[in-house]
Amino acid sequence: MIxxxxxxxxxxxxxxLRAKEVLKNCDVVIGYEKYVEQIAELTKSKETYKYKMGQxxxxxxxxxxxxxxxxDVCLVCGGDPGxxxxxxxxxxxxxxxEIIPGISALNACASILxxxxxxxxxxxxxxxxxxxxxxxxxxxxxxxxxxxxxxIYNPISRVRLKKSKEIFQVIVDNKPSKTKVALVKNCYRxxxxxxxxxxxxxxxxxxxxxxxxxxxVGNKYTYENFGKLITPRWYK
Length: 236
Prior knowledge:
With 236 residues, the chain is α/β, with parallel strands linked by helices. It folds into 2 domains: 2-103, 3-Layer(aba) Sandwich (Cobalt-precorrin-4 Transmethylase, domain 1), CATH 3.40.1010; 106-230, 2-Layer Sandwich (Methyltransferase, Cobalt-precorrin-4 Transmethylase, Domain 2). It is 31% helix and 25% strand. The strands form 3 sheets. A 5-stranded parallel beta sheet has the order 3-2-4-1-5, with helices on both faces. Helix 7 (133-145) links the parallel strand 7 and strand 8 (149-153). Helix 7 packs parallel to helix 8 (161-174). The radius of gyration is 19 Å and the shape is elongated. The chain starts with a strand and ends in a 6-residue tail after the last strand. Residues 2-191 form the Tetrapyrrole methylase domain. Keywords: Cobalamin biosynthesis, Methyltransferase, S-adenosyl-L-methionine, Transferase.
């Protein structure tokens, strides 16, 4: 059986007990090179296959091949396997899979920020690797008009900087300028950093944002208190 393992934010303290158990007992570890390195302390003695970004299907196919040979395979993912990750690929190849959840970036970042997701929110990716940029802009505009809090994955890569700026402009055009925005980079890792800004400052902070950054854009009620972001739940 293949174990599809969410390793969370990349800090072993936030790896689930089940994830640690299967990583300890498996024969083979497969994953994106950065994720494999993040758990290397637990998998030093394992047969290991590291892949580049963009080789998601290759990883899954190798996992299936090795599993058919009778090996106990752990296919590792950053965050949670079902959120912008490998679940949808592996389940088109085999049903002999145990999916082991992990802490996603939205959970990890929200815990650091305080309580930004205490009301309705949407999760969006700005990567146009699988979704056309026009469709991303449409989804972002609709989310803004509905005043959802937005969690944004993959906000910028240097190869699509122009496209990312176009999407940011959609947000600027459809939300109040004083809307609170959190930029959380490398959450729970050694090189963690964070900024809380207003939407009007987004282009001033463009150089801070990269593929390791998760953005949370508040709704009209989101406010900052004690250095934390709070979106009211309206308990009475």
